[in-house]
Amino acid sequence: MMIERRALVGAVVLGLCIAVAGLLVWGFAAPYHQRLFFTFLVNLIAVVGLQVFMGNSDITHFGHVGFMGISAYVTAILATPVAVKRSALATAPFGVNTFELSPLVAVLFAILITLAVAFLVGLMMVRQAGIAATIATVAFLVIVHVVVMNWVDLTRGPRAFYGIPPKATIGWAVATAFGAIVLARAFRDSRWGLQLRASSEDVAAASAVGVPIRKLRFAAWMLSAFIMAVAGALFTLFVGTISPKSFYFDLTFLTIAMLILGGMHSVTGAVVGCVIVTAGVETMRFLESGPVFAGAKLPEMFGLTGFFLGLVIVLSMAFRPSGLLGSDEIDDIWHRRRLRKAGVEVS
Q1: pLDDT at 134 over 90
Q2: Which residue from 159, 176, 177, 302 puts its CA 20 to 30 A from 225's CA?
Q3: What is the average per-residue pLDDT within 321-345?
């Protein structure tokens, strides 16, 4: 899977923008804003991971957060100290309360287990298309949630899983986000990505010329699951406490709103959508509490965050279904700008 020079430069520039912001936050921001930025980075990695499958196959994917949940819980179960697990997971199966692994080894196991699940689910998923595929992804998310909620001996069920060592840093999150962006661009601009996007426009024509549609969908599915698994592990090792609701419909619709707003066919669009929606969500949370603004006490307006996300999705689908950037990447925009300055007409 090769990436052409211009696309590589675009991916690196986009990643460096995130890295510079991370360095500024890490060096000068208050702990609250550092925590907020880390959450933004995790969401960014998740949105980029979603873009790999959804943006190239054109199949709406509601189950991506399920991979984050699997990875998060496996990381938590393996990395939490034995002293904590003996009380929190007193009746845990497989003897997981008798040992602990280093966070790095726990993450590796979490990624492998998540990929194993993705492999089994993907064998079925690649055979579906349209509404059937979308419903299947919703079913997968619900199944993961139900298992986590009801396997109390292993996951603590609806109760919070605590005691996870908070080893992740903003530096690790920035490096991971950078890698996810480069991986996503590499796949998008590779021969595989081009063929997969072409097949989403006309399946019959793509099949007629020998495009291996199922294999390409499976490759995008597995790469997406890998990126989502890394995001889930990072989140777990930063917050130190997780629960089933952390990886369910709230996060699902948040990441989908980000991708739809920016443009699901563009990695740059995924990043831009993540930035805008994050800023909007934080503004809505501020307004929900009824703050004092210009000397006047505003009323409490609970539910503004959900309203905002719904509005983003509805307005995007109504007025800009291809997203703010459409299928443009940062290097495409810069290239057209250079051509216009040179007096070359660009359509």
Answers
A1: no
A2: 159
A3: 83
For the chain, the 3-state helix, strand and coil shares in percent, each to the nearest 5, are: 75, 0, 25
Residue bearing tokens 């997203």: 323
CA distance 269 to 279: 15
CB-based contact 59:196 (threshold 8 Å): no
3-class DSSP state for residue 302? Answer: coil
DSSP labels, 52-103 = IIIIHH----S-HHHHHHHHHHHHHHHHS-HHHHHHHTTT-GGGGGG----H
Q: How far is CA 41 from CA 19, 176, 208, 239, in A?
A: 10, 9, 41, 13
Cβ within 8 Å of residue 79, ≥6 positions away: 100, 101, 102, 103, 106, 107, 164, 165, 167, 236, 237
Coil, helix or strand at residue 297:
strand
What backbone torsions phi and psi does residue 293 show, to the nearest 5 degrees?
-130, 120
CA 9 to each of CA 5, 185, 334, 346: distance values in angstroms, whole numbers, following the listed order: 6, 10, 11, 21
CB atoms within 10 A of CB 83: 11
Residue 347 above 70 pLDDT?
A: no
Q: Which of 166, 323, 340, 148 is nearest to 245 (CA)?
A: 148
Among 246, 219, 253, smallest CA distance to 62 is for 253
| 155 in Cβ contact with 254 (< 8 Å) | no
Q: How far apart are CA 90 and CA 113, in angstroms?
A: 23
Give the pLDDT mean for 163-184: 94
Mean per-residue pLDDT for 237-246?
A: 94
CA 300 to chain centre: 31
Interior CA angle at 62 toward 275 and 216, to 5°?
Answer: 95
Q: Is 303 exposed, middle or buried (0-12, 13-18, 19+ CB in 10 A)?
A: exposed
Q: Does the global pTM surpass 0.90?
A: yes
| Strand intervals (E) in 171-242 | none
Give me 108's structure tokens.
Answer: 């590796």
In angstroms, the CA 301 to CA 309 distance is 15
User: Hey, is 296 helix, strand or coil?
Assistant: strand
Quote the distance between the C-alpha of residue 98 and its chain's center.
32
- Of 113, 110, 83, nearest to 97 by C-alpha is 83
Cα separation, 97 vs 84, in Å, equals 8
